[in-house]
Sequence to fold (359 residues):
Amino acid sequence: MARPLTAHIDLAAIKHNYLLAKKLQPNTKAFAVVKANAYGHGAVEVAKYLDDIVDAFAVAAIEEAIELREAGVSSPILLLEGVFESAEWQVCENHNFWVAIENQTQLTDFIAANIQIDKVFLKLDSGMHRLGVQPSSADKFIELLEHNPNVGEVVLMTHFSSADDLDSPATSEQLAVFDQVHRQFSQLDVSVANSAATLKWQLPEGGWIRPGIMLYGISPFDEISAQELGLKPAMTLTSKIISLREVKDGEAVGYARAYVAKGQRQIATVAVGYGDGYPRMANHQTPVLVEQAMCCLSGRVSMDMITLDVTELGETQVGDEVILWGEKNPVEDVAAHSSTIAYELVTRMTGRAKRQYHS
Ligand SMILES: Cc1ncc(COP(=O)(O)O)c(C=O)c1O
Fold:
């Protein structure tokens, strides 16, 4: 029997979530952000499924964009961080990629390459201080790009540091900086919003939103669940019980003997571990479902296995289905019990978990 670990991907849920993003910002066009293998969901499968309905896709790197083109994806694809080497500009023209420019080297190399790009997204550093041109030099970049006959259209873009924190002043401050530059070049289309901003912030009219995590049915907010936002989770990670044993009072389970039985307990071993991307930091309150009944981790997460105390669940057998995360035990909750965020859990899932697609 093959190892039973499977990530079930609900493509129709991803489509629902994309359409919800568009509904929330009705006068905008929307990228589907499919970088990092569509946040672990399988970029080719997701992009092929959405190809007919999306306005465009966005990825982090040219390799990701090439993979989609080679798989037959025909919608426009934006490279969110631009190119990292001058030789890549020619590849962008060949594949008709849209490209972000965020620093002087990229601009200089683009002009020298003398190739045609339909849309250039000029990224402004409005306060995140990670990527982007300074507001004080934005006019020089915009003028050079707008007067360049190789550029079809310039779009002014920025990225928020804290849109998931609705109490933080950072997003309004960034919007004010962005607006000051945009007012001088109001003819330009804009692109500012990630998922959190798409879901909860008042945005400039028109332009392009860039939802990522929400497409996969995951809430970007600590305090608001995906269900409350109307999102449908796209990934259900399942495995099976592969072994069962009784342990006596005082006996310990797993590495470092981190779980010690109080009284006689039944322990189930499940085929999933940190070698698959399941978080090693998951604590003993991390929710796991066995045949739809909730129980918790007991003992350390190993490379290929976890152990559960299933004593309270009654009849339990080898082969019983285990849901590591899904609709009833959202990946956001698993992340919260593992000192991380759901973004990390889904993107770091390895290829050991088979992907099964449902639509
Ligand atoms: C430039 C840019 N836009 C959009 C996104 C999508 O963000 P989210 O997944 O929070 O929607 C990202 C993700 O990191 C990004 O880097």
